[in-house]
Each structure stands twice: as C-alpha cells, then as structure tokens.
Amino acid sequence: MNISQRWSIFTAAPHRVMLFIGALQAVAAMVWWLFELATRYGFVGQPLELPLPSAAIHAYLMLFGMFPPLMFGFLMTTFPRWMNDSEIPARRYVPAFVLLLLGIVGFYVGLLSGRGILLAATISTLAGWGVALYALLRVLLDTTHPNKRHPQILFIALCLGWCSLAAYTVWLANDHETWLRLAIQGGVWLFLLPVFASVAHRMIPFFTSSALQNPSVPQPYWAWYVMLAGSVTHFLLQLVGAQAWLWLSDAPLAFAALYLSTVWGLRRSLPIPLLAVLHIGFAWLGIAMLLFTAQSLAQFASHDALPLWGLAPLHALTIGCFATILIGMATRVTLGHSGLPMKINHAVKLMFIGIQLAALLRVLADILPVQAKVQWYLAAALIWVVCFGFWGVRYLPAFWKPRADGQAG
C-alpha cells in the first residue's frame, strides 16, 4: 500500500486524525512534565532553561494541546449522528488537523528556540481550532433537528475555549499576568468542565440504557444546568480572587454531579468495563467539587489566602474526571468506528485502573502530610505516561488501517 493510499485511509474520518494528535500529545506532554520535574528537583541532570514558567507550559500543553483534538475527534463523529446529518467532509477537518498538528509541533520547537516560535505555534492552533469550529457550526446550521441543546452548549464551550487560548496568545505577546490567569481559568471552567459535563449528560444515560437494557435511565436537565452555572460562577469568583466564596458555586455543582452518579447507576455499571470507566470518571467530578467546596469553606472560616490542599481538587477534576472520561470515550469511538468488537482485554482494564491510581497519587500527595510529595508527583506522571503510551500502542494502528468490517470511514 503506497503513501497516497495510507493518507486516504488515515484521513477517511475525523476521529482518525484528531485522536491521533491527542493520543501522541497525551504522552508527549506528560513526558515533558516528567522530565521537567525530575530535573527541577535534582533527580537527573540540570534544570531546563525555558522561555516560559514551567507551570504555564504544563497548563498549555494539557489544556490546549491535548484535550481539544481529542474532543474534536469525538464531537466531529457524534455531532452529525446526534442531529441526523451527513458526515463532516474531509475538506473541513483535514485543514484543522494540519494546523493543530503544526501548532503542537511548533510549541515544542518554541520551548527550545524562544517566544517568537511559541507565538506562531499558538496562532496556528487558534487557526486549526477555528476551522474545526466552523465544521461543527455547519452541522448545527444545516440541520433542523428539534433538540440541539447539547450541541449548542458544546459549541459555545468550544468557542470559549478558543477565547481562552487567544488570551494565552495575548499573554505570550505582552507578558501581562492577567491574560495568563484568564486563559487557565477560562480553559478549565468555561471550556473543559462544560464540555465534559455536557458530553456526560448526553451520552452516559444513553450508553447505560443500552448496555444494561434499561430504558428508564433518567436524564434530568436541571442537574446539567446547575453544573454549567456552577462552572461559570466558579470562573467568575476565581477571576476576582474570591477563593473563600467558591463554595457558593462548588457545593451545588458537587450535589448535582453526585446526584447524577447515583441515578445513572454507578454501581450497576461496574461489571461492564467500557461503561464503568465513564461512570467512574464522572464520579470524580462530584469528588473533585466536594474537595473544592471543603477547601473554600476552610479558607472562608480561617481567612487564610492559601488553599488547604494546594492543587489536589484541580487534579481530581483534570486527571480523575477529564482524563478518565476522555480515554473511555476515545476507546469507544476507536473501537466502534474501526469495525472492531466493543470489548477490551485485561491489559486495557489495567490501563483504566492505572489512570485512577495516577489521579489518586496526585491528589493524595497534596492532601496527606507526606514528606516525599515530589516522588508522588513523579510516580503519578510516570503511571500516566505508561497508561497513555499503552493506549497509543494498542489503538493508534487502527487509525491508518482500513476498517476491520470493510465499511467506509
């Protein structure tokens, strides 16, 4: 099979190209962070000389380098199905793929060469993100489906994510700290959490009903609205420095998430691994928001400006919830749209468990009074690399091979 045929297969569906970028970035971003931690704390070599603060680089690589292509791979596949539309044509997603890939590669090059390349890389990513948004917008505008609530909210959240990336780009240009805060807080609370909450609200009841043959799995909209409102309110409170008041947004959000975990049947999902990983990932949302609530109440009661548990609640959210749901959704899309059986082996189950262990280690490192916090950070990062590395070895070949069932796509 020649290169042209391979390229035709690789670009035959949006999930192939987008999940390819995301899977590679999930490994590359954490390998960089693992190396940065190891050199910074003297385990190996000398600390890296970087053009940006390491925390700002880590935030960019995870928020804007890993999650968006994985999300676009999933949403470009599901948007047409949700609204009974035809598939998104390659002319709308291949340019987005190329620009996003150039942006990711350019960012790593910029870490070695300076801010000029970094700025060009973020602009390329903005352009690719914009092309991908246009592809989804065409689906929204071209269909007459009576219920577009989830796609509309998801599109708005993706637009707010683009705005957060634009704020990061402005920070690169002028170095004003406010733009960096706006980018990171917006990336988490206006972009990632609304996207994951919306995808979970739309898909988990559907998958649960199908897998458990239970047509009565509820999908209460009030809980979804509470999660969206709580996320936006958390962003606004963070922006004005009112951390001691975050419990006003986080407690209702935690209640809504935990309520949904209960009524969706978390316990009943556990015997079915592909379903269980989605339920477990969503359960981390309730846990994370309880941690945020407790931390905020402690600050409220003690008038202490420093957070009690550092970044533990944030990593419960990003690793426990976001990464777990993402890998569950990516696995389902890869299997289902490669013509493969919707089953996973024991090695993949261990990978799912490994992600939970990485989340637990990173969270407990900031909660427990342990002396070896850095070692726990390194262990969590190493487990992440092994798990996502295994996922890539296991599933990446499906993106440049024809479907196993002989169908197109």
Describe the protein in words.
By secondary structure, the protein is mainly α. The chain has one domain (3-399): Cytochrome c oxidase-like, subunit I domain (Cytochrome C Oxidase, Chain A, Up-down Bundle), CATH 1.20.210. It has 14 helices and no strands.
Helix/strand order:
HHHHHHHHHHHHHH
State the end-to-end distance: 18 Å
Kindly estimate the percentage of residues that lie in beta strands according to DSSP: under 5%
Number of domains: 1
The CATH topology name reads Cytochrome C Oxidase, Chain A
Radius of gyration: 21 Å
Total number of β-strand segments?
0
Q: pLDDT average, as an integer?
A: 93
Structural class: mainly alpha
Helix content: over 70%
CATH architecture: Up-down Bundle
Quick one: overall form?
A: globular
Described by strand count, sense and barrel closure, the largest sheet is: none
**Uncertain residue ranges:** none
Number of helices: 14
CATH domain class: Mainly Alpha
CATH superfamily label: Cytochrome c oxidase-like, subunit I domain
Q: Could you provide a short overview of the structure?
A:
With 409 residues, this protein is mainly alpha-helical. It has one domain (3-399): Cytochrome C Oxidase, Chain A (Up-down Bundle).
Task: Spell out the key features of this protein.
single chain, 409 residues, mainly alpha, Cytochrome C Oxidase, Chain A, 14 helices, globular
